[in-house]
Amino acid sequence: MAFNIRTHAADALLDWQQGRDYADSLVNRYAKDHEISSEDRNLLNAIVIGVIRNQSILDHYISILREGKIDSEVRTVLRVGLFQVLFMGIPDHASVNETVESVRKGVRGLVNACLRRCLREKEALLELQKTLPLQVRYSHPKWLVQRWSEKFTADQVESLLEWNQQPSITTLRLNPLMPVAQEVVEASQRITPLEGHAGFYTISGLPPQQWMDDGLIYIQDPATQHAANLLEAKAGEIILDACAAPGGKATQIGAAMNNEGTLLCTDSNAKRLPRLIENLDNLGISIAETEVHDWSEPAPEKWHNHFDGILLDVPCSNTGVLRKRIDARWRITPENFEQLRELQLSILENALCCLKSGGRIVYSTCSIDDEENCDLVQEFLTKHPELSLKNEKKVFPFEQQTDGAYVALLVKP
Predict the structure, then answer these.
(1) What is the CATH code of the structural domain delimited by 222-411?
(2) 71 Cβ partners below 8 Å, 6+ apart?
(3) What's the predicted TM-score (pTM) here?
(4) Which residues is 239 bridged to in the sheet?
(5) How far apart are the C-alpha atoms of 342 and 324, rounded to whole Å?
(6) What is the per-residue pLDDT across 346-372, written as a single tens digit (0 to 9) for each?
(7) Could you say which DSSP state residue 70 is in?
(8) Rounded distance between C-alpha atoms, residue 301 and residue 276, angstroms
(9) What are the residue ranges spanned by the domains of the chain?
(10) What does the pLDDT read at residue 2?
């Protein structure tokens, strides 16, 4: 079969359905393995990410256009074709012809018939979308929509679902340790300052590689600043970033300390340390040390009563970042919340003994679910009444126009 980007898109999606990798990793691998051009890689990425983001509504349309059972290969190809026709604005002949040519001959007739019927009924299908249940219209698991409907208002739920369906934008922050960064970045016509978030910008397309190579910027969402701001790390202190990789918040903390003091960055996975170290070095954080440690396990004696401040950016459900982490909505399960809750509490417990008297812990997630956030913090405070909750903040994505997040500041007497 001649080169066809739709073939690679369908193959990548079939791999994704098997849980073999994250969507962006699959796109990168297919682009590298097949030596795909930059332009074709962009199309591959748009199709793969778009199909995953719109999976439920695409499957609903397939059920209308094709009666009876179809195998996973045909379903995937139809998703690829329908997404182009209904959502991408690609000319109809390219969407249909290229998709039909991408599939094996035995099912080309079926695929062609479905896609051409879609062309004829396109307006009616798009109009139908407005009447469908939320979980279908916005392509989220039904259980997750029901969960949020029990916790949030109807308007909040729909706004959240609608937010998650929008393609994410690239945001970056300046490196405050590089005074020239602002002048260089603001000279670009592709840059727009983010209102209300000093030092953060949006950019059309990807930033110049040179900016990243020179340590002028870090690609990061403004929601990440809440944890570092609440921690208020100061020059000369001893600070722990317990779940540090890939290093975005650690670089913010190191900059806030003006590279004076000690910043220990740990992670449970040794394979993540090289990237963490690279990011710290690239942004000029010279006070950082790195070690492997799993904070679900007790801390070594050497760290007991050792730190002035601790950041616990714990593993979570990612419900605040489903717009960006496109895989997460389909891979999280209701059971994960309880599993994560146990892990989060154990990390808090094991970190507490490492805090000096008068020290503070910032507990942080990228979740919008109280079970992992304020409810969990209250449970921990009940067990440790000696601690004080000095501040907490919950960020709803569609309200702040950033990722969702939660942060809490706990102080030890």
Answers:
(1) 3.40.50.150
(2) none
(3) 0.93
(4) 263, 309
(5) 25
(6) 999 999 999 999 999 999 999 999 999
(7) -
(8) 24
(9) 5-132, 134-164, 171-207, 222-411
(10) 44
Q: At what angle do helices 92-101 and 5-17 cross, to 10 degrees?
A: 70
Sheet holding 405-411, edge to edge: 288-292, 262-267, 238-241, 307-313, 355-365, 405-411, 388-395
pLDDT digits (tens, 9 = 90+) for 253-285: 999 999 999 999 999 999 999 999 999 999 999
The continuous run of DSSP H or E covering 98 comes out as: helix 92-101
CATH architecture designation of domain 5-132? Orthogonal Bundle (1.10)
Predicted pLDDT at 206 = 87
Which residues are bridge partners to 394 per DSSP?
406
Count of helix runs (H) and strand runs (E) in the chain: 20, 11
| Cα separation values, 178 from 117, 137, 148, Å | 57, 45, 42
Residue 114 falls in the annotated catalytic set: no
pLDDT of 3 reads: 58
* 118, 353, 366, 374: the active-site residue: 366
**Is pLDDT of 27 > 80?**
yes
Rg over alpha carbons for the chain, rounded to the nearest Å, is: 24
Measured distance CA(67)–CA(47) in Å, rounded: 24
For 84-105, letters b (16+ CB in 10 Å) and e give: bbbbeebeeeebbebbbbbbee
266 forms bridges with which residues in the sheet?
A: 291
Phi, psi (deg, nearest 5) at residue 367: -110, 155
Q: Is 76 helix (H, G, I), strand (E, B) or coil?
A: helix
